[in-house]
Amino acid sequence: MIYLLWALINLALIIYFLSICIKAIKLVRQELGLFATVILVVGLLSFCGHNNDKNKDGNSNQTKSWTFTSNDSLSQDMSSFLRVKLQDNLISKYEIMLDYGKDKNNINVPISAFPSTNGFTAGTEWKPISISVYKTNDNTKFQYYVAGYVEWNLLGVNVYTQNKIFEGTVSTEKPVERI
């Protein structure tokens, strides 16, 4: 419920900010003219579209994944994939997608994992730092550990950072098959 309330506060502030910008643009046009208005609008739009958050490759739109095992060490059968739900809010979900296969001894081995956020996430951003997946003694289960944080933002400014740790086991009984 707090995620929904935070998203609504963010939306209300964005709408209020836009109404202030429209009034300011009208005032600038009346007082300083069309050229100053165009410069103001272009300046505001450049700030809105600017993103400082980049990964080490310089591409901020790329999803980070964690690799545990090379595909070369596994048998050539099809790999399988699991969706592990970490947190389910009223408006969004945090998940990891787990890719796994079988080794030469027919034991399930984790190959890779990557995070996913689904739903409406206005004002919050989940940033995983570490994902670990381990085999268990039971060949039908994996143990996972995910560490990260959620940034709570108002109008793009970080207000609070909340640490998040998820751990548990997931069963491979009903995987999604991939060709």
What does this structure look like?
It is a single chain. The chain is α+β, with helices and mostly antiparallel strands. It has 2 helices and 8 strands. The strands form 2 sheets. The chain has a 5-stranded antiparallel beta sheet, with no helix packed on it. Helix 1 packs antiparallel against helix 2. The longest helix has 31 residues, at 2-32. The radius of gyration is 23 Å and the shape is elongated.
Keywords:
26% helix; 5-stranded antiparallel beta sheet; 8 strands; single chain; 179 residues; alpha+beta; 3-stranded antiparallel beta sheet
Topology summary:
Layout: H1 2-32, H2 34-48, E1 66-67, E2 80-88, E3 92-102, E4 108-119, E5 124-135, E6 141-154, E7 157-171, E8 176-177
Antiparallel strand pairs: 1-4, 2-3, 2-8, 3-4, 5-6, 6-7
Helix pairs in contact: 1-2
Poorly predicted residue ranges:
54-62
Tally of strands: 8
**C-alpha geometry:** elongated
Helix content: 25-40%
Oligomeric grouping of the chains: single chain
Q: How large is the share of residues in beta strands?
A: 35-45%
Element string (H = helix, E = strand): HHEEEEEEEE
Radius of gyration using CA atoms only: 23 Å
Derived from helix and strand composition plus strand pairing, the structural class reads alpha+beta
Largest sheet, strands/sense/barrel: 5 strands, antiparallel
Discrete helix count: 2
Strand order of the largest sheet: 1-4-3-2-8
Arithmetic mean pLDDT:
81
Distance between the termini: 39 Å
